Amino acid sequence: MKEAQSHPDLPRISRSLLTPGAQPPLSQFGLTLLRHVVATSLRYSLYQLGLPLPESPPVRLLGLRLFLDAKPLEELLTGTDGGSEILAALVDPGGASVEALPPRLRATAAFHRWRLRLGLRRARRSLSWRPDDSRQRQWVAFEECLRAQQRSLGDAMLAEILAVLQRREARSRGARPGGALGSAAWKALQGSTSSFSSLGPLDPLRPSWAEDCDHYRGLIAGLHAEALEDPLPRPGLRGSCRETYRYFLSEVSSALRSFRDSAVGDDVMSDGEDLFFVPFQLCGELTGDRRPAWFDAAVATNRAERAGLLESLEHPDEMRGSPALADQIDRTADWDLAPLSTLP
Where are the alpha helices (DSSP H) in the chain? Predict the structure, then answer.
């Protein structure tokens, strides 16, 4: 077992790679689904780069938001060629490189940048279900879609890592790249609504912007010009992960609504939103004829937790010490426009 080395200059927990800036607390369904997708996508990305894979998800859940945890990542990557730069890209994407990538890793990264730019979304497959399917079939269809989309979601995270590596290297040479935008966010700020299915809260509890285009078009038009970079940064691979994930949530939203409506009609749930206040891994237990004995108490507890967090301050994107000692901030006013926040 390799000995882990300390990196005191790096954040100990961070969400700057995937979900920086103002973010409302997720539902418990949304948080556990995101945890599964991030953990699987991270393993995929590290595998593609020829690096060791974590045995368990290197994440922390705070305030119903997901952070990457530097400690298990440090233990995993320390001593591998280029591991320190990959670690820094994951938890400190706004920093600068301190060492060059080794030739093998640089060549691998160049190959994947070329591959991803040719067709990041070609692996997407649509959800196969019908409104009259049984509740069990609707849930199976959701799980099948999740598995089918995993490569696309994995490529999106790999794209983020590769984009951050380039931006960190540019800073080490003295460049100052501005905040990055994903392609859907960039199009929205240009006045297009064609990609609104890729924008919105990263939670199936809430719809994408495509379901209320006029409202969000108005919000964007009301932004102060001085608050936007002029000219706007051209989209690249950065921002791929949150937009690809939101697009996936948009694709499965109709099946989830049908599933919950069927469960309410059969008295397996009392309220359609109850579905989103249990971990997604337990939702297979809602395919039967009876309401699970644990369901009502779990939903009540989880609803109360999220309601309290909607009125609470949130942790900063990066923390170098204990979260309990971190200064928390109020960013509720920016939650609606979180998909347009720039990434470091």
Answer: 28-48, 70-77, 83-91, 103-119, 135-172, 183-189, 213-221, 240-265, 295-309
* Nearby residues of 212 by Cβ (< 8 Å), 6 or more positions away: none
DSSP letter, residue 50: T
Residue 272: burial class (beta carbons within 10 Å; 0-12, 13-18, 19+)? middle
Give the DSSP H or E segment for 334.
none
C-alpha to C-alpha distance for 254 and 238, rounded to whole angstroms: 28
Residue 339: asked if its preceding bond is cis (omega within 30°), the reply is: no
Task: For tokens 């609803």, name the residue.
Answer: 303
Residue extents of the structural domains in the chain: 13-315
In the chain, the N- to C-terminal Cα span, in Å, equals 34
Give the span between the Cα atoms of 135 and 139, in whole angstroms. Answer: 6
Tell if the pTM clears 0.90, that is, is over it. yes
Tell me the sheet residues that pair with 329.
314
pLDDT tens profile 314-326: 999 999 988 888 8
Phi-psi region of 21 (alpha: psi -120 to 50; beta: other; left: phi over 0): left
If you ran DSSP here, which 8-state letter would residue 314 be given? B
Nearest-angstrom CA–CA distance, 34 and 319: 21
* Residue 305 CB neighbours (<10 A): 15
HSE, side-chain direction, 13 A CA sphere, residue 289: 0
Pairwise CA distance, residues 20 & 18, whole Å: 6
Radius of gyration of the chain (CA): 20
Q: How confident is the model at residue 1 (pLDDT cuts 50, 70, 90)?
A: very low
Contacts of 120 (CB under 8 A, 6+ apart): 152, 155, 156, 159, 237, 240, 244
Q: If you average pLDDT over residues 282-310, what whole number do you get? A: 94
Strand partners, 59: 68
Over 70: is that where the pLDDT of 8 sits?
Answer: no
DSSP one-letter string for 87-103: HHHHH-TTS--SSPPPH
> Which amino acid, 16?
S
